[in-house]
């Protein structure tokens, strides 16, 4: 009887593993694009669907300095981000349609503190915390890349 209960418990646990593993795994295979920030080139993953944007950089333990994630929204809006289940300290750059950085926000790992754009934007670029500051890139700077439209 005990082994039957143990087998049932193991089977129930294994049935949950794919769902838990799927929810707790970092997104590593999203589409990518190249961006520029002044003389610096960035290789960024694109979070374009609601599910991709919801997971974002959660569960990632490391990220190369020249990489980041660009969140792409269908229409401009005030975008707010938090860091639940995000292990890396990040800086969010809230970016207008033409690639201009509207504002920057340093975000603390595993925090529910909300960080919002100062005005409606369609893009949010997350990079390792300190990346923008070390390169002197501030609000008003313009990012380049074919994804940004110019009016």
> Which segments are poorly predicted (pLDDT under 50) over 5 or more consecutive residues?
1-22
Q: Could you give the count of β-strands?
A: 9
Biggest sheet record = 7 strands, mixed
Strand order of the largest sheet: 6-5-8-3-2-1-9
Order of helices and strands: HEEHEEEEEEHE
Task: Detail the topology: elements first, then pairings.
Layout: H1 2-24, E1 32-37, E2 40-47, H2 50-55, E3 67-77, E4 80-81, E5 90-95, E6 101-107, E7 115-116, E8 121-128, H3 131-134, E9 143-144
Parallel strand pairs: 2-3
Antiparallel strand pairs: 1-2, 1-9, 3-8, 4-7, 5-6, 5-8
Protein name: DUF192 domain-containing protein
Pfam families: DUF192 (PF02643)
InterPro entries: DUF192, Saro_0823-like_sf
Please describe what this structure looks like.
This protein is of the alpha+beta class. It has helices at 2-24, 50-55, 131-134; strands at 32-37, 40-47, 67-77, 80-81, 90-95, 101-107, 115-116, 121-128, 143-144. It has a single domain (27-144), classed as Jelly Rolls, CATH 2.60.120.1140. The protein contains three helices and nine strands, in the order H-E-E-H-E-E-E-E-E-E-H-E. The chain is globular, with a radius of gyration of 19 Å.
């Amino acid at each position: 009887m005990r082994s039957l209960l143990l087998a049932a418990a193991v089977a129930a646990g294994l049935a949950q593993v794919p769902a838990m593993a799927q929810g707790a795994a970092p997104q590593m295979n999203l589409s990518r694009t190249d961006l520029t920030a002044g003389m610096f080139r960035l290789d960024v993953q694109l979070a374009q669907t609601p599910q991709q944007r919801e997971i974002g950089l959660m569960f990632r333990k490391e990220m190369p300095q020249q990489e980041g994630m660009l969140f792409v929204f269908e229409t401009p809006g005030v975008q707010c981000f938090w860091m639940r289940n995000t292990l890396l300290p990040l800086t969010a750059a809230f970016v207008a349609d033409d690639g201009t950085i509207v504002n920057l926000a340093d975000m603390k790992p595993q925090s529910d503190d909300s960080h919002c754009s100062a005005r409606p934007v369609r893009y949010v670029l997350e990079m390792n915390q300190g990346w923008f500051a070390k390169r002197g890139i501030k609000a008003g700077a313009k990012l380049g890349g074919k994804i940004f439209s110019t009016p």
